[in-house]
Fold:
Amino acid sequence: MVLNYIWIGFVLIAIAVAMVSAFVAGSAEPLMNVMNATFDSARTGFEISLGLTGVLSLWLGIMKIGEKGGVINAMSRLVAPFFCKIFPEVPKNHPAMGSMFMNMSANMLGLDNAATPLGLKAMKELQELNPKKDTASNPMIMFLVLNTSGLTLIPISIMVYRAQLGAVNPSDVFLPILLATYFATLTGLITVSIVQKINLFQKTIIITLLALTLFIVGIIVLFSQFTKEEIQFYSSFIANFLLLLIIALFFIAGIKKRVNVYETFIDGAKEGFKVAIGIIPYLVAILVGIGMFRASGAMDFFVMGIEKLLASVGLDTDFVGALPTALMKPLSGSGSRGMMIDAMKTFGVDSFVGRLSCLVQGSTDTTFYILAVYFGSVGISKTRHAVACGLIADFVGAVAAILIGYLFFH
Structure:
């Protein structure tokens, strides 16, 4: 229901702003921009879905091998003590546990192409447990909010963009991004737990969160001793090494279980094709709404309004240049990436705004895109508190990124 109102808001606000702009300017260009955005966004939605088809087929095929080989079940048992506490409605050794763990691990390593298919696999398994097939279940919402909060240990893509644009030290945003995304993820976990009445003050949860915190601190200490070239090399090497190792383990487990690995892969790949086709309408809808809102200039007016409001009460406005990235991030991954690159080019790659745009880009994931794709893949139309909890995590991540940016770079 919330997503419905937000989508309607995007479309109607975009149309209203475009009409006012057209009358004020005496030109049809604002109306043409919004109209063109609808066609461009619809085409983009289809192209993204088409591009996902191959990746989904590949990874769901590999996941099928892992499932038949017993690896997914083993992973389910590994994470069961913690996951059973935050996903109390999922049976202890259900395959969804392993799929969710695989998805979160891929996200933390920055492996987007692998993370999405693994997440869609988890959603399908969670849907099997869902008594109301058109309504998001509690485990689905917890899983997706943890996804949208986007805990990333190694923001390799952002460091690569900074290097390409000539940053003196492309990896200087590594630690601030890690801190910001950690706060966003923790906020997402707490917010959903409050709504779903999950007690976080349980021994297993506290120990796991402490262990995760110590792990993140360890990564910070380790990487702080490396040069920028070493950070980029090791982060890319570790991520891809672990991914290839997992694939090898799946194949070896399949062989040991006497599974027909090739036929099993084909069966899983067929599921990937069906999922990719199913998400097209949901993805087109959300991207059209976002595209219209952006093309109308409504976002630009919003940013200018915030800047004037802050200036009127005497607050610092140096961070406003990074706000377009922060505002676009929940809406569109490619849009926010474009905003980040534009900020680095406009203000300077090593400027405060340039660095800050990288921080807010890395602090969370693309909430509306993830909700549209993941819920769309299993036919969920009633999202309950997923949007609200996801946006709260986004807000905290963005605020944390700005405050941390001031601490490190201002």
User: Anything to note?
Assistant: The chain has a mean pLDDT of 86.
